[in-house]
Amino acid sequence: MSEQQNINNDTELTEEQYEEQLSEQHRIRIEKLTELKANGKNPYEITKFPVSILNKQIRDDFDKLENETVSVAGRITSWRDMGKANFIDIRDSSDRMQVYVRIDDVGEDSFKEFKKWDLGDIVGVTGYVFRTRRGEISVHAKEITLLSKSLLPLPEKWHGLKDKEERYRKRYLDLIANPEVKDTFIVRSQILREIRSYLDNLGYIEVDTPVLHTLEIGASARPFVTHHNALNIDMYLRIETELYLKRLIVGGFDKVYEVGRIFRNEGMDATHNPEFTSIEMYQAYTDYFGMMDLIENMYRTIAQKICGTDTVNYQGTDIEIGKPWARLTMVEAVKKYADADYNDWADDEAARAVAKAKNVEVEPTATKGDVLIALFEEFVEEKLIQPTIVYDYPVENSPLAKRKPSDPAFTERFEYFINACEFGNAFSELNDPIDQKERFVKQVEKKRSEGGNNAQVDEDFITALEYGLPPTGGLGMGVDRLVMLLTDSKSIRDVLLFPTMRPIE
Length: 505
Fold this sequence. Notes:
By secondary structure, this protein is an alpha+beta fold. The protein has two domains: 3-158, CATH 2.40.50.140; 181-325 and 386-495, Bira Bifunctional Protein, Domain 2 (BirA Bifunctional Protein, domain 2, 2-Layer Sandwich).
């Protein structure tokens, strides 16, 4: 029995039998490659093949292409041996295509070589387009060339890539074995293109800012640390793009954004990966209400462009992106869902008593703002299924947001939530350098008390503010979570081509 047939055999093997078969097939393929090289037919020496069309285009335009000569290339994914005539399926980046290979057309010597090839090999085919008697659009081969030898067999029916961990580790094989996975990443690319298009049309300029920082800022996220040999200094992978982007607003740009890779040395779960993609955007002369309108309209536009509708189903729930998003302050949200009214708390001690009564743990020194945040996280977030904007956050956890003139205990900050998950964060940006430095100092003190001994105040950013930052609205959003939403993906690992994985020991 040929290897082509053996791989597709429906007989279920034990794990041990399967591993033995893999080892044997690997050995056989190495021998085939050695023979090819000995005969002067090393496939790895071929540098190019004149592909004239993609498989999907042949299907889409069959009426125009019937009987036309084409050149296609791809990986052999199935093989039906009928003696002097064979049918193979080859898959390129767009689709699968059946190829009819007959000895009378390609020649006896070429056909003899062809019969030694294997599933997984990458081939180039030149022939004409036709439809078989069974109605299958196909290419009738006149020439077929081995372009790359696959030394390892593709996953077969019973031992295909079913294990999630293995699929994430070997995404290249996941994409071969499960072609539908590619669709998610095509959509991801389309989403990024639409975000850029939306912002570009509003007059935003895309920029790049440093990934390596020379100091560890006092923000709560923990950075990854590396060392620069030439300068002999530790450096830190960025945990945000915010401070550099706001420097550009100081410098005279009115609207900027960056699509950036962000790194945080923290835990992993269904919505968190140590490196992820965010988009931050800043606009002079607007505030957080302007950013609310921007993000709501942007999501509505992108959903329509990508999904053809502004109501998308995520994990069995219809998310109504197109309807006006609910907007409520954090105080209103906690009152509604936790039955606790911030305005009734006389002081910090009274607030802590409320937390205790509701079995929510807070620090002994927790302020009213700290308690409000704790109650929000405990009782409110899980209720925010439809798109909801929660605004006016306590100053305690908003070190870069402008205080509300009417109530300095709160800031002009909002986050928006979908399906009980935070998707983005926005401010009326703090542009008072004195207030900003005071908050930075407190942030650094807190981080150092928690063990972050290298945390520092970004003095250069304070200097930039002293030259004058105009009233500015800013927003940061996670791209990966938006992709999860619009592709109905349950885990962030499903929308990252190469998610972070623990090394195999």
